Amino acid sequence: MAKKDKILIIEDEKPIAKALTLKLKKEGLESQVAANGQEALDLLDKEKYGLLILDLVMPKMDGFDFLEEIKKKNIDIPIIVSSNLSQDDDIKKAKELGASDFLVKSDTSIADVVQKVKDMLEK
């Protein structure tokens, strides 16, 4: 698997981040975790990723601010938003800011998230 397939999980809930990391590893995918948007921006300055999994509600810098920042920096990378925010306005805003897909955490299993990641990396 190419280095570009490394996945950055931007998630402040440690159990969710750990579950995603373990499931991705089981599927042969390398991942790294950032606990907030600022930490993720710092990692993006140092490393290349094939895809991001982004929570919207986080400390320091939330997902919307993160999406705005990477848009300003012209970073073109597939982003799956995984959030419990499920209002149409939130989904629309995330997609307008560059999110490739939007998954509602309470409606989506970890296995489904991993399958979506694999599908997007194959495109």
Mean pLDDT: 93
CATH superfamily: Response regulator
Could you list the spans in which at least 5 consecutive residues all have pLDDT below 50? Answer: none
Number of domains: 1
| Helix and strand pattern | EHEHEHEHEH
- The CATH topology annotation reads as Rossmann fold
DSSP strand count = 5
**What share of the residues does DSSP label as strand, in percent?**
15-25%
Count of separate DSSP helical elements = 5
Can you give a write-up of this model?
With 123 residues, this protein is of the alpha/beta class. The chain has a single domain (3-122), classed as Response regulator (Rossmann fold), CATH 3.40.50.2300. 45% of the residues lie in helices and 17% in strands. It contains 5 helices and 5 strands, in the order E-H-E-H-E-H-E-H-E-H. The chain has a 5-stranded parallel sheet, sandwiched between helices. Helix 1 (14-26) crosses helix 5 and helix 2 runs parallel beside helix 3 (63-72). The protein is globular. The two termini are 14 Å apart.
